Amino acid sequence: MAKPNKKGPVTRVTIICSRCRAKLFYYRKGGKGALVKCFKERIVKDFTEIEGQCPGCQQNFARDCLIRGAPALKIIGGKVRVS
Prior knowledge:
83 residues; mainly beta; three-stranded antiparallel beta sheet
């Protein structure tokens, strides 16, 4: 299977926690669909201390995994919002 394009899309979105509204990271997202996974190489700026855990309310919003051979965060449904 092909790896995701490293250059990726130019659209930058802010990912925030749905519970406490803390900024989690800036991400280069492609497409119009829901955010299901975040490739680590597309994260522009990360505000979390522990990967996959909100710095404000300490809830887990994602799991670490490999998707198509690239490291990624698998988002848990309803835990984050895209703005």
